[in-house]
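Structure (tokenized):
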């Protein structure tokens, strides 16, 4: 069933319009249209600009088997090259991220959810024989640790909506933490196609449903599907219509990590003013304090942490985000390319009614 849903979403993704999108997401979608569904099924976890990022340099048989010999050798050579050229690579914050997760008492989450045990994984750094992670996976463990520590749910089957779900890695970890939880994943069709494959393989007995056209939308609201899903895949084109008509249980937690600050101003405001967001019991944002600093205008529009404060909500948590806080990436500034930190740190902000 998840394969059928994925194929339908993938076919839809080939018609996704990009003229109104920000430059980053426009280029990502255009890149994804080059691939076939067959390629997606075999590589739903990783392709150009849509990967699990990296792991510290470590030779291990798991990664060799997962990559295949040729791809793995290329991966090792790129890692070695980055170390030689820049003195460090994209994994510079890996060990710090791991220690910060321990400070949050979240290491047990990683122990129960090692990345090499998750479907489709190819990039794994082994902390020991049973525990593994990569850069992106630590992000999911971090967010899950924050959610477990600071977000209170009134029942054991919370409804959690995530705007910008990627392939569903966070939902994988949260579902293992809260087995009865229900998840609404909002993203472009090509990302939801990946999520359908990943979550379907991860939880073969789960109920997955998607809303991507008028028929699937009407069926959700006219039948009892709205009470039976584990994972509801909702395309961005139907988010606002869904939001305006959603009258079931209020969302227990709505999340967004990074992507709101990358959007155009009109899209940003529409999400922040959406009915389903304003009716959510808790909201967790992780975004830049300044999405586009004056000396490094990273994104088209400029948002600050003040833009994420919402009337009617009190602040439960506000802090400098610990994840990837020490990452150093090669970037160009004032005409010079060097290894630099990101131009603005990220914040963790949890709001509650």
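Design, position by position:
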């Amino acid at each position: 069933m998840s394969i059928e849903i994925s194929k339908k979403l993938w076919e839809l993704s080939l018609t996704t319009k990009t003229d109104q999108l920000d430059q980053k997401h426009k280029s990502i979608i255009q890149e994804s249209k080059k691939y076939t569904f067959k390629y997606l099924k075999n590589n739903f976890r990783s392709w150009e600009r849509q990967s699990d990022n990296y792991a510290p340099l470590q030779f291990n048989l798991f990664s060799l088997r997962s990559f295949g010999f040729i791809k793995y050798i290329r991966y090792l050579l790129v890692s070695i090259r980055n170390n030689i050229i820049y003195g460090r690579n994209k994994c510079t914050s890996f060990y710090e991220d791991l220690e910060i997760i321990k400070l949050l008492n979240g290491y047990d989450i990683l122990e129960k959810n090692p990345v090499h045990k998750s479907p489709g994984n190819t990039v794994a750094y082994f902390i020991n024989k049973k525990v593994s992670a990569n850069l992106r996976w630590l992000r999911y463990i971090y967010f899950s640790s924050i959610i477990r520590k600071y977000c209170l749910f009134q029942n054991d089957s919370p409804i959690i909506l995530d705007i910008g779900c990627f392939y569903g890695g966070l939902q994988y970890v949260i579902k293992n933490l809260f087995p009865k939880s229900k998840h609404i994943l909002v993203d472009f069709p090509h990302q939801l196609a990946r999520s359908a494959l990943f979550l379907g393989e991860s939880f073969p007995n789960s109920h997955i449903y998607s809303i991507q056209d008028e028929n699937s939308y009407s069926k959700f609201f006219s039948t009892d599907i709205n009470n039976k899903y584990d994972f509801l895949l909702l395309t961005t084109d139907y988010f606002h219509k869904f939001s305006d008509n959603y009258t079931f249980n209020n969302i227990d937690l709505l999340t967004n990590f990074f992507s709101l600050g990358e959007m155009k101003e009109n899209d940003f405001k529409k999400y922040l003013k959406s009915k389903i967001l304003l009716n959510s019991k808790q909201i967790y944002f992780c975004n830049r304090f300044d999405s586009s600093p004056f000396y490094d205008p990273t994104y088209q529009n400029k948002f600050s942490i003040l833009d994420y404060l919402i009337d009617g909500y009190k602040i439960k948590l506000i802090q400098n985000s610990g994840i990837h806080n020490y990452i150093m990436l090669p970037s160009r500034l004032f005409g010079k390319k060097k290894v630099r930190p990101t131009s603005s740190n990220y914040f963790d902000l949890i709001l509650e009614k």
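Reviewer-requested clarification: The chain has a mean pLDDT of 92. The radius of gyration is 20 Å.
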